[in-house]
Amino acid sequence: MRCDLSSANGFFKKKIDTDGNVHIYKARLVARGFRQIQGVDYDETFSPIVMLKSIRILLAIGVWQMDVKMAFLNGNLSEVVYMTQPEGFVDPQNARKQASRSWNLYFDEVVKGFGFIKNAEEPCVYKKVSGSALVFLVLYVGDILLIENDIPMLEAVKDSLRKSFSMKDLGEVAYILGIKIYRDRSKCLIGLSQSIYIDKVLKRFNMHDSKKGFLPMSPGMNLSKTQCPSTTDEQKRMSEIPYASAIRSIMYAMICTRPHDSFALSVTSRYQSCPGEGHWIAVKNILKTKGYTDAGFKTNKDDSRSQAGFISCLNGGAVSWKSSKQDTIGDSTTEAEYIAASEAAKEAVWIRNPLDLYCDNIDAIAQAKEPRSHQKSKHILRQYHLIREIIDRGDVNICKVHTDLN
């Protein structure tokens, strides 16, 4: 029988600790999966990955961490794969396109076997209940986070995991996905920091010695397409500026730990295809800077659409946030605020907790609390009226917050 032989590649990796120091040197042998052909060497490759906001939500409760050694080697491929390998190596699966999916399917089968139920909205979050005892399990590739209200049940889950996989118990989580976790139990506080990552980003863009800023975007700064390069010389100069790379670097920090960068990043990311000098100055200003809903009426000079944002808080800390340009053009501040509140309410329902939603526009609150036809608001799209149903169910309480405090 004739078959394709997959070649192998070896590489070395350094794992760093919470302070950025190397604490483990690793050697890995992987298949060169980029040479695989869909339909011949593999079919399905999708595997879910937990959202960072889910991790933040559960960190607000308290988390233990475990690590699955060589996670991808636990999964079983459904396809027959032949690979060159060094003598003594048994399962050459890692780095095949379907390896992540195979591991995830196998893990899902195992943890369901000892009583965990998968969350329908977040497939990398599992729950196990026994009487009043509760354990949440979060999977991020080979990292496992455990959240519990009962120590004996936690230890039982750990034992089950150890019997099924080669595990390393890391104790209370202190570092995950490049994020350092701080605790101050005397003040009942937990904090997240990406200082090591941010320092690397600043050095990459030669901003580490720049004067520090206080705000990601200066008040009154308006960016538009009129600031894009208009001459050949300007276009050539800006083509040498790593604008898109800087946006992506800031975006990871914003997604993980920096909600205050959301608005500035939402605005500056619109000009990645043709940035001008003014746009680059705004990006550098974000680099200098080391929930509630709100909307700005017609804040986009290019198309008059409003900017909306929200922050969802749990136990006093921000766990989910967003700032984006609205899909429709609002005719008033009431409409802009109402649409912003609707988007925030949908996020609150996803978090699945009765939450207070704060909004600084009285008319928008009135629209949300009870149906009313009004000449100035009758055109608002039906999809944004979902907030009324959410409030009626008791999932969200909408409250007034003064503009000066928002």
UniProtKB/TrEMBL annotation:
<dbReference type="Pfam" id="PF07727">
    <property type="entry name" value="RVT_2"/>
</dbReference>
<dbReference type="GO" id="GO:0003676">
    <property type="term" value="F:nucleic acid binding"/>
</dbReference>
<dbReference type="InterPro" id="IPR013103">
    <property type="entry name" value="RVT_2"/>
</dbReference>
<feature type="domain" description="Reverse transcriptase Ty1/copia-type">
    <location>
        <begin position="12"/>
        <end position="217"/>
    </location>
</feature>
<protein>
    <recommendedName>
        <fullName>Reverse transcriptase Ty1/copia-type domain-containing protein</fullName>
    </recommendedName>
</protein>
<dbReference type="InterPro" id="IPR036397">
    <property type="entry name" value="RNaseH_sf"/>
</dbReference>
